Amino acid sequence: MEIGSWIPQVFYDLIGRLVPGAFLIALSGVLLVDSSSARSVAMFLFKEPGIPLSVLLITGALMAYMVGTFLGAIGFAFWNREWTRKRAVAAIRLELPAGDDPHAGRSFVYDSILIHEPSAGSRLVKLQAERHMCRVLMIGTIMLFIGYTCRNWFPWGWVHARVFVGLALLWWSAYLFDVHLEVRSGRLRLNLWHLLGKPTGRK
After folding, report:
1. Burial 180-201 (b: 16+ CB within 10 A, else e)
2. Rounded to an integer, what is the distance from CA 178 to the centroid of its chain?
3. What is the pLDDT of residues 117-164, one digit of tens each?
4. What residue numbers bound the domain in which 98 lies?
5. Is residue 155 reached through a cis peptide bond, with omega within 30 degrees of 0 on the bond before it?
6. How many structural domains compose the chain?
7. Are 65 and 13 a contacting pair, CB within 8 Å?
8. Angle of CA points 26, 31, 36, to nearest 5°
9. Which of 16, 42, 70, 72 could anchor a disulfide with 129, C-beta 3.0 to 4.6 Å?
């Protein structure tokens, strides 16, 4: 297998899973871990002899990847309504593109572009990775809101209000970016499909 064929998937994992997972882990540390506990963890990790930096980086990357993967799975369940294995399997069917409908045959067009024009398909993969990132951030923000609320129950002050507003803005920004990416990726799929000279209707 050519090394170039791995690049889109590597970027998907980096953008869609590793980056948002690392961001959410860092944000959860700021919001959910008190200063004394944070100092204890830092002393354990970095005080001599401590843990080798390479081990910390690899472990952190694996944790971030797992967080991004599992939260992304929850996002797929919500957006694609794949609540059960039976329902997910029932959704597997051949759906060919029809006319200029951006929602018809999306997976067929997506896979065709990846096969026939890998360089153009890499752009689609990047957009899909960014959508995955947005969904991870949305699900993670909701979980952080719940965790922060349970940890800081009444009475609430201005600090808590600012945190709630910040989490709400983070969720809303991720949602708006996801909507933009859905429109952009839909247009790109159709444009590439037409540029490749593929038919757009069922016979």
Report:
1. ebeeebbebbbebbeeeeeebe
2. 10
3. 887 788 888 899 999 999 999 999 999 999 998 888 777 777 888 899
4. 3-195
5. yes
6. 1
7. yes
8. 95
9. 16
